[in-house]
Structure formats: C-alpha cells, structure tokens
Amino acid sequence: MKVKYYTPSDSKLAYSVGVTLDRFIKMKQDDFPFASGELSQLLRDIGLAAKIVNRETNRAGLANIAGAFGNTNIQGEEQQKLDVIANIRFTRALTKGGEVCAIVSEEDDEVIDLQNSSGKYVVAIDPLDGSSNIDVNISIGTIFSIYRRVTPVGSPIQPEDIMQPGRNQVAAGYVLYGSSTMLVYTTGHGVNGFTYEASLGEFFLSHPDMKAPQNGKIYSINEGTYNHFEPGLREYLENCKKLEYSARYIGSLVADFHRNLLKGGIYIYPATTKSPSGKLRLLYEANALAFIAEQAGASAIDGEERILDIQPSSLHQRTPLYIGSIEMVKEVGALIKKRRALTVG
C-alpha cells in the first residue's frame, strides 16, 4: 500500500484560517484539571450565544428589533428590544448547557435560579452593554463573569455562591459587536481574543496573549459632569490636557475598554456628588473587566481600592471604575488619595 505523508508545502494554495475558539478551549482544558470539561463547555455555550446575538444585532434595523421595549430594568434604565433578546439568548444557552446553577443578569431584579443543583458555576452577565448606542449603530457588547459555586454541588444555591469578590473568578470575558465581532476572555492564564468569521460561523484566534501597554495617551471619560468630580480626578484630567492626551469616549463600556486595552489608555467612570457610588455594576461589569485588565498587565481600582478585592454586599451594587494602563491608573489613584488626605486633614 502506498502512503503519502502530509507536509505543510502541500497546502500552499489554501491559506490557514487559524485556530477556532472551540479548538483553543479544548487545547487549554488541561489548565483546569478540576473542571472535567464543564468550564470548557460553558465557554463554548457563551460563544454560541454570542454568535446568535451578533446575528440579531446585524439585522436589527431590518427586523424591527431596535428601539425601546417599553420596560425598565432594576437600574431604572429603559430596556431596549435587543437588551431583552440578548438576555433571553444567553440565559437559554446557559440553561441548556447544564454547567450553571445560577445567573445574575443586569436585566433581572433577582438571581435566576436554574434549578440545576448539579451545576458547578455561577455566571454574572451584562447581556448587552451600551443600550443607548443601539439605535445609532455604535459598537455595543456583552460582559460576562464566571465563578465556581462555594456550597456543595447538589445543594440549593446560597447567597455566598453569588456574593463573591472578583478575585474568585475562574473566567471572564466580553464580546464586542462592531466593525468586526470579537470575543475576548481569560481563565487566569493570560488574555486571548477571537474574531468572528461570519462566512464560516466560527470565532478564530486573532489576538493571542493580549498585553496592555504600561502607559498610554488616551483618556476616556464623560466630562459633562466635571464640576461634580472630586478634586484629585479634576487635577488628573487637567494634567492629561496639558500633556495633550487624546480624549476618546463613545459611551459604550466594552468598546472604550477594548480600544484602551489595545492602544494604551485609561477608562474612568467615577463617583460624583450626584452618584457617590458610581454607576457601573460591580458583579457583572467592573469585576469581569478588572480580571481581564490584570491578566493583560493593566490595572483596575475604584479610586483607591483594587476592584477585585471589593466584597459585594448587594446584587446590583455599583462602583466607581478607573481601569487601563497600569501607570495611568497609578497616577490618578495617587492624586485622588493625596487630595482626599488633604480634605480630611
């Protein structure tokens, strides 16, 4: 019997399309010997839901699914139709996957108990961040955070399964729906980004081992409430202007964070006199992005304290967020601490 051995030269006429998300997850499964494949399957479930939401997002203008749904969520924000659709899609995928016992979603007032006592994981998710940008065709995103439950498998979920600090995350990520759709995630072993190839229906590894620049020249903040910022932050912003840094802010958290992660910069959503606790949610926005930031060599604080060390006390708890290139976060944190000390003194 004649045998022909494959060599790379045999495939010069057909370029390599790269490593798919599914294959990459399988390759990295040994990083989690305790998981027995459940975490890998959970990440694949999220990837599948992201593909469906990407499809819905791309056809929103043609299918009458843009615009307001008519309800408000627990945050008091008007729900968009795509908010509701994305929440359904991710909840359905996580329910059918069988690895999750509970979901915390921005769109639901209470914890969603999936009645799956054998599930080992809790997922906190903002199904569609940037709702105000949907109708104007600006990039939006999904943010997710994954925790291992702390109570015994087989028992009902308890508050301690949900109220975990961000440092307990086993995985976190985001999906950016923009000029291209990207899924970026970490399992505590670096950060990797995958770009969606619609013609093949697959996410392909496009940004391996992502690293944030240590410093940058971009600052992202809504300066409309400048007069309500604390003195240390105002001083930092004045320094940015003196150094002629670029102000880049589109009001879509995932898109702003993604740009600064790649190019170097800082994203700030601070506490103000009107909103002393800030507006971003700790469990399913700040924690996930802080975990990704630190794994990429960046930093995330609430002004002074590390985001991942904050012990949550309520389901939809809010927090200020300063996140991005490590030197920029250090600088603004030092100024805030200094000016607060002077005020106290």
TrEMBL record:
Cofactor binding remark: Binds 2 magnesium ions per subunit.
GO MF annotation list: fructose 1,6-bisphosphate 1-phosphatase activity; magnesium ion binding
Principal location class: cytoplasm
EC number: 3.1.3.11
Compartment(s) of residence: Cytoplasm
Top-level lineage group: Bacteria
GO BP, sorted A to Z: fructose 1,6-bisphosphate metabolic process; fructose 6-phosphate metabolic process; fructose metabolic process; gluconeogenesis; sucrose biosynthetic process
Domain Fructose-1-6-bisphosphatase class I N-terminal: 20-208
Occurrences of domain Fructose-1-6-bisphosphatase class 1 C-terminal (ranges): 213-335
GO CC terms in record: cytosol
Pathway: Carbohydrate biosynthesis
Assigned keywords, A-Z: Carbohydrate metabolism, Cytoplasm, Hydrolase, Magnesium, Metal-binding
Reaction(s) catalysed (UniProt annotation): beta-D-fructose 1,6-bisphosphate + H2O = beta-D-fructose 6-phosphate + phosphate
HAMAP family (UniProt xref): FBPase_class1 (MF_01855)
Assigned protein family: Belongs to the FBPase class 1 family.
Subunit structure comment from the entry: Homotetramer.
Stated name of the protein: Fructose-1,6-bisphosphatase class 1
Gene (name only): fbp
